[in-house]
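Recap from last week: sequence in, structure out.
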Amino acid sequence: MTTNNKVIALPFAGGNKYSFNGIEKHVSKKIDWITLELPGRGSRFKESLLDKIDHMVDDLFSQIMPHIQEGNYIIYGHSMGTLLGYELVKKITEKKLQKPMALFFTGRGAPGFTRFNNKKSLLPSPLFWEEVNKIGGLPKEILECKELLDLYYPIMKSDFKAIEDYNYLPMEVPFNFPIHILMGKEEIGIGNEKTPLSGMKDWQNETSDNCTFELLEGDHFFIFKHAEPIAKRISGIAERSFNIL
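Predicted structure tokens:
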């Protein structure tokens, strides 16, 4: 069933349009789920990779345009997807297009905060994967398979370069719709590439509306362990935002 109420999802570093299948299958049937996909992966594997957030946002902007012409939508992003979502909505706002009813972001502190203390994208493959493993930057099934690591290395390197080179520019006028932030408890802390609570709560600076915060058990990929509860949270936010009974 096609509706005019949509969740538009933006995947994490190395992700593709299938990355949120586990969450999507639990989302309310009253809502359409659309995952956008960047070049160089999934069905766009033969296209050249992008290594700048601005270029990724331009690509996503052209993809999202047909989906926001009518009806209501919220944006969901995990990790790199939160940065992409934030910058994408800034562009949508600048172009005076229909804004989302809400943002639901997981796995990253506010856009002005970075948990990376070195340039992982410059590391050779073995060291790169060691660093990615430390921050829980990929599911274990991939980290334990050399063939998959070889496949993902150029994709992850370009994504990490984009994140590392990102330049945060605060908005003069914050968003005027709610932002909902959800992170894994093991991501929160001081040092060792953790995110301090202040780094998470600075999301409040990005909206004049309500900003909620929640922690669930798990590391950076807690979203896979809690797919159904996360889907229920997204569905609830969407249904309230869209006034679906």
